[in-house]
Design brief:
Number of helices: 6
Structural class: alpha+beta
Protein name: Lrp/AsnC family transcriptional regulator
Strand order of the largest sheet: 2-3-1-4
Strand content: 15-25%
InterPro entries: AsnC-type_HTH_dom, Dimeric_a/b-barrel, Tscrpt_reg_AsnC-like, Tscrpt_reg_AsnC/Lrp_C, WH-like_DNA-bd_sf, WH_DNA-bd_sf
Organism: Steroidobacter gossypii
Keywords: DNA-binding, Transcription, Transcription regulation
Number of strands: 4
Length: about 150
């Protein structure tokens, strides 16, 4: 039986919010923001990592680096009993950053990034041609208002 995660207190939630903004923030800066000692914050981070609340840290590219890249959400309808096969194949596509199972009219939603509209068009076609994919519908991202 899976163990339920312990509820996070308000300090843990605030700490996680700060780490989402900048996972490389020095512990001392986090401590100042939270009004706690550096050792208390370090202990909380270590506990959150040990308990698998925090499972890793990632890289966010600057706006300048991402400028010109085309981002799209690709909604995917999968034929019955093909979800795991489609997942395996989509995982191989390096332009797909996130694949999620969703409720509603579609079965999966992918967030993809390509260098150009032409590259995105080819990627969407490639996903649509995967064995087990019934249909795709895509939306190109025009702008990002904020990201956490």
């Amino acid at each position: 039986m899976k163990q339920r995660p312990q509820p996070l207190d308000s300090v843990d939630q605030q700490l996680i919010a700060l780490l989402r903004e900048n996972a490389r923030a020095p512990t001392a800066a986090l401590a100042r923001s939270l009004g706690l000692s550096r050792t208390t914050v370090q202990s909380r981070i270590e506990r959150l990592e040990r308990s698998k609340v925090i499972t890793g840290y990632s890289v966010r590219l600057s706006e300048a680096q991402e400028r010109g890249a085309v981002h799209a959400y690709i909604m995917i309808t999968v034929k019955p009993k093909h979800a795991s096969q489609v997942e395996r194949e989509v995982r191989k596509l390096s332009q797909v950053r996130v694949l999620q199972a969703v409720s509603g009219s579609f079965d999966m939603m992918a967030l993809a990034v390509a260098d150009s509209i032409t590259d995105m068009d080819e990627l969407i076609d490639a996903i649509g041609e995967l064995d087990g994919v019934e249909r795709t519908t895509s939306s190109i991202v025009l702008s990002t208002k904020f990201e956490r």
